[in-house]
Amino acid sequence: MLTTIIYRSHLCDNVPFKALEGMVAAANLTNQRASVTGILLFNGTHFFQLLEGPEENVNAIYARICQDRRHYNVVEILYDYAPARRFGKAGMELIDLREHEREAVLQTVLDKGTTRYQLTYNDRALQFFRTFVEAKEKQNYYEIPPADSWEFIADGQAVNLPADYTPIAADCSFAFQPIIDPLAQEITSLEALIRTPTGDLPAHYFAHLPDGELYAADLRSKKVAFAMAHALGLQDNVLSVNLLPMTLVQIPGAVRYLLDEIEANGLVPEQIVVEFTENEVISRVDEFKGAVKELKAAGISVTIDHFGAGFAGLFLLTQFQPDRIKINRELIKDVHKSGPRQAIVHAIIQCCASLEIQISAVGVEKPEEWMWLESAGIALFQGNLFAPPCLNGIPAVAWPEKKTPL
Ligand code: C2E
Ligand code: MN
Ligand code: MN
Questions:
Q1: Nearest C-alpha to atom 16 of ligand 1 is from which residue?
Q2: Which of 77, 121, 254, 271 has a CA that sits 20 to 30 A from residue 337's CA?
């Protein structure tokens, strides 16, 4: 299958431009042997390259390019298929933008085109060339430093339940995970994640409930979450709990129950956030909107969880606007390497900025993911990079500290 990859990257500061000549010559041979076309643009700082050829070969060459230590921040911006080659000649060609007029560069690229129609009719690949040559997206090229330029230092502030804590008779327990502002070194809230009494994950807990008990159990479990949060010394911090949207719709008096348990545990509604998963909300929006009304009227905030994971995330915001959204790991994972993920996250950020909806990113595991998201304007994070969930307790947080260069 004929495949095209386009990526961009940043030349390492310690690599002299002259070294590129040798690199291009070597790549020319490799590409010829693999029947791959490479068109490389360089603007003095960034590379932009199109690779076109048989899928396996293109993938293999791209995998090697990603490992190359002479450049960094490699971002894949297009992965596509085509009926015929855009550029016939296998090999590798470098166009140094500093030596050409903008218009001339695009014409040069067009001149290399071999199929009659491919490059003329709004071809995405050609549009990417144009955007790069005109530097239209440059403000979105975040130059994140290497992962090891940060150290993550645990603060030793873990909290466990006091020895005299008597658990409420319950079939569930909770793990707590902080949502933090890493640069301000501040915990902004704690999320209570349901567990079985022995610490098994939510899917396990829900799978073992008697038939028809799902929503009632989901609601009752919140009593345990509030009691534990109180015993852990939550005080005036914010506590997030998860609920199935239908729990509020199906169980009569559900919001009243929550309010009573919040009060019974010395908490106030204003410090409670309820998180609903996006795709569960979308299927019954109208009923759900009624439940949200009740929560909001009582002072409880609403978050849409797993935002962007479903099929209609942005559309959902036309139906009602939550106080916060959480972008899920599916979009966060390797965001620093993926043009499409970056574009979607940018769109979510822009949309939420216009609507004054606060955003957090969940499931952050890598320093690069965090750095990219900070650069894009997200300030709140939850993830194993900083603190994994802690059963029956609040974990220590590993705060990022910039390493001082030796
Ligand atoms: P969620 O609300 O998105 O919760 C965050 C999930 O991401 C948690 O999984 C957490 O352990 C996981 N996570 C956090 N940081 C990382 C990371 O760096 N990497 C990875 N791979 N995962 C990370 P968990 O605890 O298994 O919960 C899964 C889901 O179960 C939750 O997703 C939530 O939707 C649901 N859930 C949890 N507690 C309750 C509850 O009381 N009621 C209801 N209805 N659903 C709940
Ligand atoms: Mn959640
Ligand atoms: Mn999740």
A1: 363
A2: 121
